[in-house]
Design brief:
This protein is of the alpha+beta class and 376 residues long. It has two domains: 242 residues, Aminopeptidase (3-Layer(aba) Sandwich); 117 residues, Alpha-Beta Plaits (2-Layer Sandwich), CATH 3.30.70.360. Helices cover 30% and strands 23% of the residues. It is built from eight helices and 18 strands. A six-stranded mixed sheet has the order 1-2-6-3-7-17, sandwiched between helices. Strands 9, 11, 13, 14 and 15 form a five-stranded antiparallel sheet that branches. Strand 1 and strand 2 form a beta hairpin. Helix 2 packs across helix 8, helix 4 crosses helix 5 and helix 6 crosses helix 8. It is elongated and about 85 Å long. It starts with 12 loop residues before the first helix and ends in an 8-residue tail after the last helix. 44% of the residues are buried. Bound molecules: zinc ion. The site of zinc ion has 5 residues, from helix 2.
C-alpha cells in the first residue's frame, strides 16, 4: 500500500473491456464511465419489477499486485474444490456471482425480479476513486449522461470476501505523519542545538501509552476497540549533525461513529503533552471511512433470510476497510457481502472455495426474486 504504482499493469482496462463485452452478449444495458483518463467504472442496469426493491450490486475490478505469488496469478487452476489465482477471492469470485445471477435473470426475461444496478468499480485497493465517482453520479442531478436510473436505491451490497456473512459495520483508517522540529548543529556541540529525534522519543512514548489506553475502550459492539500503530520513523541526515527534523507515520483504525479530525487532534494532544513541545501533525495522507450500522440491519436480515437452507450466515462487523461507506454516505442501506474469506485475500496462493461461489449465486438469486421480509 502507499507505493506509487503506475503503468498498464495496475489499470483495470482489460477487466472493463471484458465486462462491456459480457453485457453486450447478454443484451443488458451497460455503460463505461471514465474516472481518470485511462481508468473507469462499468455500470449495467437490469430493469425488473418496480414493486420489488431496487438493489445495487458492486464489485471492484482491481486486485493487489502479484509479486511474490507462489502460483500462476493469471492462469486460474481448480484443485480440491478450490479455484486458485490472483483475485479469485478478492474479488472476482464475488463479481462472478453477480454476473452469473444477472445473466440468469436476464435470460429468464420475465422481469419478475428486483431492478439491479450493477457497478464494477476501479481503484478500490488504493484510493477508492471508482466508488467515489459512482457516488457522485448518484447524488449529482446534472450527471444525466449515465444510464443509472434516477430515484431510490433501496439497498446496496458491496462485494468483498465475508464468508457469505453480511457485514454491517467495519472500521475505517486514517494515516498521517507527525513531525518534530529541532535546531541542527555540529554533533560535537550538541547542547547548542535541539535534537528533533529526542523530542520525538518523548512524543512516541506518549503516543504508545495513548494507543494502549485505546485498547481498553469497549469500542463498537461488532468491531471492538479502535487501534493505533506507528509504522515508520525517519529523522536526521548524518550522524555528525544534531537532527533538526524527525517524522513518524501513524495508522489509526477508525471505529464506526468516530471522526478522523478529532482522532488526529487527540493523538496530537497526547504527543504534545509527552514531549512538552508543539508538535506538528501533517494533513492526512489517506482517510477511508468506517461503515456505520445505523440503517443497514434490514439488508443483513434479508440476506440471512435468503441464505436459509443454503449456508449459515450471520450479521458481522470486521476490522478491514472497504469502499462500502461511499454508498452508505448517500443514505443507501449498505452491507458488505461475498463468498470467500479475507484471510485468503491478498495472499501468495489466493483461492476461493467453489462451493461458496454457487452458494453466493443461490442467495443472491433468492434475494433478487422476492420481496424483502417475505418468507415465501
Ligand atoms: Zn476487495
Amino acid at each position: 500500500m502507499g507505493q506509487n504504482r503506475s503503468g498498464d499493469q495496475w489499470l483495470e482496462r482489460g477487466m472493463t473491456d471484458w465486462l462491456q463485452n459480457f453485457f453486450q452478449k447478454i443484451n443488458v444495458p451497460h455503460q463505461y464511465l471514465p474516472v481518470e483518463s485511462d481508468r473507469g467504472n462499468v455500470v449495467a442496469v437490469l430493469e425488473g419489477d418496480p414493486n420489488l426493491p431496487t438493489i445495487l450490486l458492486d464489485a471492484h475490478t482491481d486486485t493487489v499486485p502479484v509479486e511474490g505469488m507462489t502460483i500462476d496469478p493469471f492462469q486460474p487452476k481448480q484443485k480440491a474444490g478450490r479455484l486458485y489465482g490472483r483475485g479469485t477471492c478478492d474479488v472476482k469470485g464475488t463479481m462472478a456471482s453477480h454476473l452469473s445471477v444477472i445473466r440468469q435473470l436476464a435470460e429468464q426475461g420475465d422481469r419478475q425480479h428486483s431492478t439491479i444496478i450493477a457497478t464494477f468499480t476501479c481503484d478500490e485497493e488504493l484510493g477508492q476513486k471508482g466508488a467515489i465517482e459512482i457516488a457522485r453520479q448518484f447524488s449529482d442531478p446534472t450527471a444525466s449522461k449515465t444510464i443509472i436510473p434516477k430515484g431510490r436505491i433501496d439497498m446496496a451490497i458491496v462485494g468483498e470476501p465475508t464468508g457469505l456473512n453480511p457485514v454491517v459495520a467495519h472500521k475505517g483508517t486514517v494515516r498521517w505523519k507527525i513531525q518534530t522540529n529541532g535546531v541542527a548543529t555540529h554533533s560535537s556541540r550538541p547542547t547548542e542545538g535541539v535534537n528533533a529525534i529526542y523530542r520525538m522519543g518523548h512524543a512516541l512514548l506518549a503516543i504508545q501509552q495513548y494507543g494502549q489506553q485505546l485498547q481498553k475502550e469497549t469500542g463498537h459492539p461488532l468491531c471492538g476497540p479502535p487501534t493505533l500503530s506507528v509504522g515508520t520513523i525517519s529523522g536526521g541526515t548524518s550522524v555528525n549533525i544534531v537532527p533538526d527534523q524527525c517524522l513518524i507515520e501513524i495508522d489509526r483504525r477508525i471505529n464506526p461513529g468516530e471522526d478522523a479530525a478529532e482522532i488526529i487532534e487527540k493523538v496530537q494532544t497526547a504527543a504534545n503533552q509527552g514531549s512538552n513541545h508543539d508538535i506538528q501533525s501533517l494533513p492526512p495522507d489517506m482517510i477511508s471511512l468506517p461503515l456505520v450500522d445505523d440503517n443497514n440491519h434490514l439488508v443483513a436480515d434479508a440476506l440471512i433470510e435468503a441464505a436459509e437452507g443454503i449456508c449459515d450466515s450471520q450479521m458481522k462487523g470486521v476490522p478491514f476497510s472497504t469502499h462500502a461507506p461511499r454508498f452508505a454516505e448517500l443514505g443507501i442501506p449498505t452491507v458488505v457481502f461475498g463468498p470467500g474469506s479475507i484471510s485468503q485475500a491478498h495472499t501468495r496462493d489466493e483461492w476461493i472455495e467453489i462451493a461458496q461461489l454457487d452458494q453466493a449465486v443461490a442467495i443472491l438469486h433468492r434475494l433478487l426474486t422476492r420481496p424483502v421480509g417475505s418468507s415465501a
